[in-house]
Amino acid sequence: MSTEHPHPTPSRPVLRPGLSVYRRDDTHLQVGLDHPVLVLPDSDGIRGLLRDLEIGEGLGLLSPDAGVALATLLDADLVVDRTEVLAARDDRSGRELAALAAHGPHASARVKARATCQVALHSPEPWRTVAAERLTTAGIPLARAEEPGTVTLVVSTGEPPRSLLDGFTREDRPHLVLTLYADRARLGPFVAPGATACLRCLDAHLGESDPRRAVVLQQLEHRVAPTPCDSLLGQAAVALAVRELMSYAEGDRPATWSATLTLSAALGEPVRTWPRHPHCGCSWG
After folding, report:
1. What are phi and psi of 179, to 5 degrees?
2. 0.85 surpassed by pTM
3. Is residue 123 domain-shared with residue 258, that is, in the same domain?
4. What CA–CA distance (Å, rounded) separates 188 from 199?
5. CA 80 to centroid of chain Cα atoms
6. pLDDT tens digits for 21-68?
7. In terms of DSSP bridges, do strands 28-31 and 21-25 run parallel, antiparallel, or are they unpaired?
8. Residue 16 in contact with residue 106, Cβ under 8 Å?
9. Using CB atoms within 10 A as the burial measure, which of 14, 91, 139, 177 is most buried?
């Protein structure tokens, strides 16, 4: 049976960027402030280990308790390779260093996953340019024109035409909807056809309290003039939309998965989840 540790020690181990060591009480030390955080017993050996991990120039001879503490730190993903940290600091976008701070030894795989996720944009200007810039900052490439990409971001000033989104659902294309209004922005839902609620599901739920809503929505197909929107809220909402796509690219479930978040001058309302509606065609199989 192999005795190799599931988290091997990096050649130049150092604490994740942003982590510091604190005294918690007379007998304990604490790595990190809130999250992540790890409490370790205080001893000469563990203090020496943590000093070495803050400097990142290599480890001295480990005492038995320091060896246990190192294994605990590795299991908690709080230790990375200093070579990766130095390389990340050369990245002017800051995304690699931020990924190391957030995900430790898993950062490289997450950043690479973003680069393989191509986003198709359906958006008017200036929001198309804003979204493209934010995607570049995140390290997520744009799909080529007319290509479906891995996922689609739909930015609409005012309610989007349902026929456009119906097409994405029929084509089994994951998509995130961002709707900008004069005084608010609605982020979501993130639609994975066959697995989540779509925008028609939201319409059906809302139609239960407003029976004529469907009649009004049908007239959106002929709307020409764009809805004016708050530019600052719009930019914040686009940034959050791209952050949702980043989560999806990295293999996490977006917060707007079958849910919506409304941003306004009050900053934000709780995320509202939406189950698939039995009367919506996306639920018929």
Report:
1. -115, 125
2. yes
3. yes
4. 9
5. 21
6. 999 999 999 999 999 999 999 999 999 999 999 999 999 999 999 999
7. antiparallel
8. no
9. 177
